[in-house]
Amino acid sequence: MDWIFKAVVTAVMVLIVMRLVGRAGQRLAGVVAALPTITAPTLAWLVHERGVTFAVDAAVGSVSACAMLAIFALAYALASRRVGNVASLLCGLVGALAMAFPAFVASSGLIVALTLALGCSTLALASISSRAIPTGNPCQRSRRSLACVAIATGSLTALAATVGPMLGGFATGLLSSLPLVTGAIAMMEHATVGPGAAEQFLHGYVWGLFGKAAFGAVFALLAIILGAPLAMAVACGVAGLISVARIPCRNPELSAPENHSLTRPE
Questions:
Q1: Which of 22, 162, 193, 262 lies at a C-alpha separation of 20 to 30 Å from 108?
Q2: What does the pLDDT average to over 90-101?
């Protein structure tokens, strides 16, 4: 029954993030989406099922995977300026796949993994615009659409978290960090509000990757020394502090209000 719990956790996370999009803006939602809300429970399950050593390997893998996530966000954001959401998603996936082998190699050591993750995240943060202007109406997001995205994303995440332990530490860390939530929300924002909304969301997401990488690194360093529960608590605290250090405030000029639509500038 674990897979049901994993699916529900992810689905609830999608709904929470989408609510934040409407109330607090795309960039704040992106920061929240990058938090280790899926990685942390996965590591906890791994400690229980496979032991601390395996969970540490998975944590290093999740740090290395942040490089792939940053390039995914970068490729999607750049493509969204010219093409639709489906083509942008494909570009993002191609970018992530291009980083798969470097991420796998980097997962052999925490320092290398962290260096690669921070380098790619810095590049993406500098390249993705934080001032892209949404052009559509956020009210176009229907409850049915949100539910479908949440259910599909939750199911895929549950599958990944279940299969991952059979493939090794790096695969588990990678699968627990797949941009399923990010890709789904970016596509929905792109389709309903405009590419500028997707780019704002991805800018916040990349900033959140710094906290996600810090979470994995702190857990990997402290799990054996302090024990998994305390290491998890410290890692979550560090990730939260890094993420909130630059949580962007909602800018009324850049985020579409909920009670009326914006028209595309001529």
A1: 162
A2: 90
Mean predicted confidence (pLDDT) in 94-117: 90
Q: How many domains does the chain have?
A: 1
Tens digits of residue pLDDT in 108-144? 889 999 999 999 999 999 998 777 665 555 555 545 5
pLDDT tens for 39-50 read 777 787 778 777
For residue 173, which of 160, 186, 185 has the smallest C-alpha distance?
Answer: 160
Asked whether residue 260 is assigned to any structural domain, the reply reads: no
Does any domain span residue 254?
Answer: no
Within its chain, how far is the Cα of 117 from the centroid? 13
Examine residue 121 and state whether it is found in any structural domain, yes or no: yes
- Cα dist. 149→8, 43, 90, 183, 234 in Å? 12, 24, 17, 10, 32
Query: Whole-angstrom Cα distance, residue 25 to residue 131?
Result: 12
Instruction: Tell me which residue of 10, 35, 21, 62 sits closest to 185, measured CA to CA.
Output: 21
What is the residue range of 110's domain?
Answer: 2-244
What are the tokens at 186? 């970016």
